[in-house]
Amino acid sequence: MAFLDESGLLRIPTRRRTWAPAGHTPIIPYNYTHARLSALAALTVSPKRQHMGLYLRIQPRNFQALDVADFLRALLRHLRGPIIVRWDRGQIHRGPAIEAVRQAHPRLHLEEFPAYAPELTPTEQLWNDCKGHMANSLLRDAGELRRRLSDNTRRVRRSQAKLRAFILSSKLPSPP
User: Fold this and answer.
1) Which residues of the chain have pLDDT under 70?
2) Helices 96-104, 65-78: crossing angle, 10 deg rounding
3) What is the distance between the alpha carbons of residues 165 and 54, in angstroms, rounded to a whole number?
4) How far, in Å, CA of 143 to CA of 140, rounded?
5) Number of other residues whose CB lies within 10 A of the CB of residue 82
6) To bridge 125 with a disulfide, which of 3, 67, 158, 166 should be the other Cys (CB 3.0-4.6 Å)?
7) What is the rounded distance in angstroms from the CA atom of residue 122 to the CA atom of residue 166?
8) For 76-86, what is each residue's pLDDT tens digit?
């Protein structure tokens, strides 16, 4: 099983509640630029061992169906056996490129979440975690944004408990 989702990350710092000495409001300097990255992630669960995995692709432009198709092919190279991919009903998850991957790989099964149901997508928890760890930070350029996202991904990937928490904190129904 794989839960796939995409997100956009901006260089502008996300503001989160923080601590400061009484009477000293924290000030976060930033340059208002629209530098951003697009990220595509798959949170995977092995059916036999219940081992969790995390796969990520980052690029400077928005993802399109061709990019998602490439990502699915890479996922198929890394994972054995039948793969069920659950994702939202985004336009980039449709079209001839996605259908070609599905036709070429019968072990790939694609399932959609109900319309607009981010609470069901465990990968949304990953984005919340990453953005929370980058909150209140001054990111000087897109390269630093990429490094911070990669560092956060490595941190999360090392923790089976963290990956499992993403799935458990979603509103997915529990297995019988």
Assistant:
1) 10-20, 26-35, 136-138, 174-176
2) 20
3) 13
4) 8
5) 12
6) 166
7) 5
8) 999 999 999 99
Report which of 150, 148, 153 is spatially closest to residue 163, judged by C-alpha positions. 153
The single-letter code of the amino acid at 16 is R
Q: How many Cβ atoms are within 10 Å of 12's Cβ, its own excluded?
A: 16
pTM of the model: 0.83
- Tokens 């092995």 belong to which residue? 46
Question: Which helix or strand (DSSP H or E) is residue 109 part of?
Answer: strand 108-112
Residue among 58, 89, 55 nearest 75 (CA): 55
Query: For the chain, which domains are there?
Result: 2-12+34-169 (3.30.420.10)
Q: How far apart are CA 86 and CA 68, in angstroms?
A: 13
> Mapping DSSP to helix (H, G, I), strand (E, B) and coil, where does residue 104 land?
helix
What DSSP line would sit under 22-72, residue for residue?
TT------------EEEEEEEEEE-TTT--EEEEEEEESS---HHHHHHHH
